[in-house]
């Protein structure tokens, strides 16, 4: 494919930078201003994301309420846990010379502080919410105090009694931590301008380039992430050197520069160069962060081969290694992708962070290519992984997102730090607590995923009640209000409130499941085929576009090669995957004993979806393999049972759950 | 249940002990002599195992040839790897004061030396094979040189620069290593009498009791095993103290004496006391060794509650957590049992050592209860796990025994040490190389699993060409020759060659799959119902018993609650599970594309089994979940395909394989 040079400039900040040097010319100062408040700001893309302040999400509705819970509860929850777990204290201990004795947490504990700092920055920038500004300043002071004179900053390496710097690139996570630090600095710079944190980050970025350039250590970090940070910090500052360093890391990887380990070098994608790989593999978060960085690098360097390679890898990953929920990662052992079609429900790993990383990758591909199918992936993953991870109160989380809970389980005690990544109920915090802070920064910047612009118009990718007031790629102002109760309803009404006198193209994504969707404009209804529908006209203030997405619940069958769910169906309802919870079955029944009747379509009953079927009392043989095809069965009880959206399972106490319902 | 006090004596050695103190009275000196050459010699049991020298296995046939390969190749292979990997050298380094600098291998490397020593001892004792006697003497010298004055012996702990003794009971494996040392000493004492190794072991056993008694460290080892060693060493020496210490360890466990870990205390069975548990759980080898020790302790202390508890746990484990192959352990992550019915084929762990441990447990339960179903489990596991692990030449091994190989894989290089427990082909050695030595000691003592006696007669549990010459529980001599080509044929002929003038009961196990088996005695054929068939009469020399087990290959269906194989069937042939390998499909076809036709029974064609079905070219959708029940399919090709016994899969180079064949 050819990359359209829509926005060839390195990205500046939304607010006026105080003293960041812009080394590359930009083509439009207006673009620069508007493009500032965005987590991802490619210099080149087919679609241009709009800034967080250009979208105002209603405080109610599916996403609006979750973004509010994130702001009101999750960020503060994470901050108090960072303190309680001692991961913030590590920086104080470093400054006080009390390391390694007082150090707490794993190698990547530093990064959690940076991720939450990033969340606080977006939260402030997107809404003007000042509640966390003091905390951000405190984070900055405490982190800064631990930085070495040459820019290096890590609480786990380099001091007497600690391992030397970069002596364990496989597992040390030093560059990984830097990646999150740089992303946090981007958020800070784009929302508040240059300050001590941003300057600290620049010293880190320079240190990385000094240390890992062509004349430096010729290796990479065991966990990709620094590439994403370097690219975005390069876009922010215009420093070509940072982009180059990201590309160096990308090209080095895959040639066996890291040690072989029990799970093979595929674990950290050091088995095959990124541009030669055929599919994502190994540790899911690592693979997805790396692929996202590869897209960034491809667009910054005009490397269409690389972009096509990542597109093909992701396409096969979606076709063969992705759960119905959009979740990725089949293995608990190495938190990794399985081989093609290895998608067990009951040991699905589907790490929350992998879901976030998949959204990051899909979003970058959507920007680069304009292909609305990436919007479908973003939607599926947001509704069924990102929304599923946190509890309704935003203070406990799933780390892994199983599709089948076989035992109720009661090993999580709220208010304590869970040792386990997988639990039957959500936990307040984890020994490895990457997911809560990742959730926090994602929700804090979620409005950035709703819409894009190009020269001709506006593209709406996700549907939520919101007001959008933006500038098209050619500088014209355009604004719409989106009224919808999606996904409870499939009715999405756009009302134009700002429009130029010239034609504007409004593009609406039509999800792949939305067969027979319609669009009504000016009283005329026409079909809206799957993919996207475009209305190009001279809009007047008050004009309405009504998109109607059919919200009939539906059965979904799996590919026959997915052994784990053969003979089962799932039920989907709009963008949401549904699940059966034991609390909704007759007392004493197990979700595994429910056999669904697929001759009766799922239907809406009251506010939810119901399916028909039979609760089968199983025969209990001594040996579970038998010589006759038909099982001996006990009592059978016909039943209509309600299903709940997968994202809200586990909110009624310990129980069993399954997404894929037995048909036999 | 009530334990019959058939053999109330502590077990002595087969050869005259030089100076082992017998502290308990025995009821029969003849029993003592005969009972010596047995790996497991309960003081109390319903059935009494017979000594290794009382069974002479033919050098051909299924087991005879494998035992020969073990003797000729595997033992030497393991010995050279123990040297090459430096695990034997650790003892030299210890004696030379060169630890920790020169230490090689994991915490449990010492135990591998002991396991192979045990194999050499049984090999010598069972057959008089002198080839490894010199090596055994060398092992003894090198190990002895590393023992501390107080009996402690471990190359990984206690020296300057190493962790202190018993400072990491969760993962240190110190007591685990001792357990294998004690089992090795039992083998040595029962086959060669007391010598330096046996005396060394006595110092170890005393050290354990001194250190971990009621007044000592009130904890247990993270890996059960020392209990098995202490019990058998106690049976050997008559030292009640060793039995008591085993019981102390057993009763301590399950009360949270070890640290909580990522996978929970169930990993090392420290979550629930053994006598309260409902099912085996956690790390499979740990769970099975512990359960086997619990049976030993139950019979030695007349603890029927404990025996019943283990029987119930194992019964549920067999019914809900066991693969068709007899394999146990569903998780790669923690090498652990899954929850009930979590039995994925493609990520089946089924560690070879877990198979061996399950045989050890089933054998002990068979001895204690006489229930022939335990003989079925022993048979299933021997044919489909223990025989599957080693290659035909006995020089490479599966560590994990998957039931579904999805990709050919080529990551194993013969002659090198594999980092991975799971490979698509067998490996010469592993970083964690517990399985090869465990295989070696199991095959070296395999003849011990064929038959037992009680006062009234002989029980034949496994069928192999062999000569048995033994003494019944009441002292009468009895001998039979077993002629059979089992499992290629279901015909088993017993010919009596030694018989008393009084009635003898010969009991033959009839496997659960052998519907319509018959027994012919004196020209009269009668049905032999599943379970066991008994012929009690005054036998004359030359009398023949002919057991005919129907060997028609058969389809086997799984319990509907095993999601992983729903809509699939397996094919079994006598005691053997069969498998489909890609090398037997039309070129370019994948085993996952073969749909078997269950209306055509599997049939014997030539020397193997063939099934009918269709090779289906799958539709390749972009998203593997669809809204219509019927998949789009490409070309379909009817085919008859041969299946191979699972134990011999992977012997024709890298390929794909599955045990459970798709029916839809």
What percent strand of chain A?
A: 15-25%
Radius of gyration of chain A, in Å, reads 25 Å
Distance between the termini of chain A: 46 Å
Q: Low-confidence parts of chain A, pLDDT < 50 over ≥5 residues?
A: 1-35
Name the largest protein-protein interface in this structure. Answer: A-B, 71 and 71 residues
- How many H/I helices of chain A? 14
Could you tell me the mean pLDDT of chain A?
92
Fraction of residues in helix of chain A? 25-40%
Secondary-structure class of chain A: alpha+beta
Main β-sheet of chain A, in a few words? 10 strands, antiparallel
Per the principal axes of the C-alpha atoms, what is the gross shape of chain A?
A: globular
Q: How many strands in all of chain A?
A: 25
Work out the oligomeric state of the chains in this entry: homodimer
Structural features, described:
The structure is a homodimer of 664-residue chains. By secondary structure, chain A is α+β, with helices and mostly antiparallel strands. In chain A, the strands form four sheets. In chain A, strands 3, 16, 17, 18, 19, 20, 21, 23, 24 and 25 form a ten-stranded antiparallel beta sheet that branches. In chain A, strands 2-8-9-10-15-12-13 form a seven-stranded antiparallel beta sheet. Chain A has a five-stranded mixed beta sheet with strand order 1-6-7-11-14. In chain A, a hairpin with a 3-residue loop joins strand 6 and strand 7. The longest helix of chain A is centred in the first third of the chain and has 24 residues. Chain A is globular, with a radius of gyration of 25 Å. Chain A starts with 28 loop residues before the first helix and ends with a strand. In chain A, 59% of the residues are buried. The N terminus of chain A is likely disordered. The interface between A and B is large, with 71 and 71 residues.
């Amino acid at each position: 494919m050819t990359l359209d040079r829509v926005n060839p400039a390195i990205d500046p900040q939304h607010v006026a930078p105080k003293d960041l040097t812009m080394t590359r010319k930009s083509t439009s100062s207006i673009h620069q201003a508007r493009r500032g408040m965005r987590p991802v700001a490619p210099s080149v893309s087919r679609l241009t994301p709009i800034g967080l302040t250009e979208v105002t999400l209603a405080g109610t509705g599916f996403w609006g309420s979750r973004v509010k819970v994130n702001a009101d509860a999750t960020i503060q929850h994470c901050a108090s846990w960072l303190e309680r777990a001692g991961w913030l204290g590590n920086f104080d201990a470093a400054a006080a010379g009390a390391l390694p004795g007082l150090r707490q947490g794993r190698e990547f504990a530093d990064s959690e502080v940076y991720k939450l700092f990033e969340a606080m920055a977006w939260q402030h920038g997107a809404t003007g919410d000042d509640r966390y500004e003091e905390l951000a300043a405190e984070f900055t002071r405490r982190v800064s105090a631990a930085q070495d004179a040459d820019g290096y900053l890590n609480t786990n390496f380099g001091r007497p009694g600690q391992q030397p710097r970069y002596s364990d690139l496989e597992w040390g996570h030093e560059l990984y931590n830097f990646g999150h630090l740089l992303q946090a600095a981007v958020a800070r710079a784009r929302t508040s301008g240059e300050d001590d944190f941003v300057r600290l980050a620049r010293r880190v970025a320079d240190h990385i380039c000094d240390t890992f350039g062509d004349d430096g250590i010729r290796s990479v970090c065991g966990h990709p992430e620094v590439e994403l940070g370097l690219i975005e910090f390069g876009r922010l500052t215009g420093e070509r050197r940072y982009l180059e360093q990201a590309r160096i890391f990308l090209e080095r990887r895959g040639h066996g520069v890291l040690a072989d380990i029990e799970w093979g070098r595929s674990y950290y994608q050091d088995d095959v160069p990124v541009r030669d790989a055929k599919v994502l593999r190994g540790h899911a978060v690592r693979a997805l962060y790396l692929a996202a960085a590869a897209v960034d690098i491809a667009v910054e360097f005009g490397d269409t081969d690389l972009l096509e390679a990542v597109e093909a890898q992701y396409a096969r990953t979606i076709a063969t290694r992705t759960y119905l929920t959009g979740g990725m990662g089949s293995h608990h052992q190495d938190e990794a992708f399985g081989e093609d079609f290895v998608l067990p429900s009951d040991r699905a790993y589907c790490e929350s962070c992998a879901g976030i990383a998949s959204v990051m990758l899909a979003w970058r591909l959507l920007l680069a290519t304009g292909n609305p199918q990436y919007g479908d992936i973003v939607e599926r993953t947001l509704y069924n992984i990102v929304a599923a991870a946190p509890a309704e109160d935003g203070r406990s989380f799933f780390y892994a997102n199983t599709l089948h809970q076989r035992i109720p389980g009661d090993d999580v005690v709220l208010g304590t730090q869970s040792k386990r990544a997988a639990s039957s109920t959500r936990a307040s915090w984890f020994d490895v607590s990457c997911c809560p802070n990742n959730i926090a920064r994602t929700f804090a910047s979620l409005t950035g995923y709703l819409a894009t612009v190009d020269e001709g118009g506006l593209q709406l990718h996700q549907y939520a009640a919101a007001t959008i007031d933006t500038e098209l790629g050619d500088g014209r102002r355009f604004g719409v209000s989106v009224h919808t109760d999606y996904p409870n309803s499939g009715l999405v009404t756009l009302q134009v409130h700002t429009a130029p006198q010239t034609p504007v193209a409004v593009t609406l994504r039509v999800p792949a499941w939305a067969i027979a969707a319609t669009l009504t404009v000016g009283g005329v209804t026409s079909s809206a085929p799957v993919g996207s529908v475009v209305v190009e006209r001279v809009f007047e203030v008050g004009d309405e576009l009504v998109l109607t997405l059919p919200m009939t619940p539906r059965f979904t069958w799996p590919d026959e090669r997915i052994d784990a769910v053969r003979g089962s169906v799932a039920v989907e309802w709009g963008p949401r995957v549904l699940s059966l919870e034991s609390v909704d079955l007759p007392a004493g029944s197990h979700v595994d004993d429910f056999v669904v009747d697929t001759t009766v379509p799922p239907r809406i009953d009251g506010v939810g979806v119901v399916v028909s079927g039979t609760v089968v009392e199983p025969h209990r043989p001594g040996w579970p393999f038998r010589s006759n095809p038909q099982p001996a069965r006990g009592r059978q009880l016909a039943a209509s049972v309600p299903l709940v959206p997968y994202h809200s399972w586990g909110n009624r106490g310990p129980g069993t759950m399954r997404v894929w319902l037995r048909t036999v």
